[in-house]
Design a protein that fits this description.
mainly beta; five-stranded mixed β-sheet; 192 residues
């Protein structure tokens, strides 16, 4: 006998269930993935996934190493419920142009209001031309960067750290020529 499966999320429209069918035979494996839609991957994360039949407390599901959730179909209509939570950390993406290396401390992600250090090291013959931090996907939303300390405060959204390296141009220095002469008597010495 087949039993229905109803999948839902506490935030309507935030997730897509991939590979889940509307009904399964008792004992069959139910295997599926959950994809976050739109901007939800940058602002939310999956807090919990449970499944259970009507009138039963849901059992917690863990995502497998393969990225799938799996359970054996019980006898009765089964509900799969996803609960989302706002991200506790936000991603840091690095982009660079020119010759040099860029990293951040912490790397990959940081909590809102955490101080993040930018480590930009120019290759030999190059220099750091600019450092710009902006909201990932929205170049017009800039994040304040402290050039003296090479740090910024992590906002409550993902950021991109963009560093431009350019060729190093040494400062212009005046050139002097010294002319010497031996055995000169009389006259004046002039300098230009």
């Amino acid at each position: 006998r087949y039993f229905d499966v109803e999948a839902s999320c506490d935030t309507q429209g935030a997730v897509t269930f991939v590979g889940i069918q509307s009904s399964y035979m008792r004992g069959m494996p139910v295997t599926f993935q959950i994809n976050l839609n739109g901007t939800y991957p940058t602002t939310h994360e999956i807090q919990s996934v449970t499944y259970g039949t009507e009138g039963q407390d849901g059992d917690l599901l863990e995502k497998g190493a393969d990225g799938y959730y799996t359970f054996d179909m019980p006898a009765g209509k089964t509900f799969v419920d996803v609960t989302l939570a706002e991200r506790s950390t936000y991603d840091i993406t690095i982009e660079k142009t020119g010759e040099g290396t860029v990293s951040t401390t912490p790397s990959d992600s940081a909590a809102a209001n955490q101080t993040v250090a930018v480590n930009a090291i120019a290759a030999e013959g190059a220099s750091v031309k600019s450092v710009v931090i902006y909201k990932t996907g929205d170049f017009s939303t800039k994040v304040a960067y402290n050039m003296t300390n090479s740090t910024f405060k992590m906002p409550n959204y993902p950021v991109t750290v963009s560093v431009e390296f350019g060729p190093f141009t040494p400062p212009v220095t005046d050139t002097y020529t010294i002319i010497t002469a031996d055995n000169i008597t009389g006259g004046k010495i002039l300098s230009t």
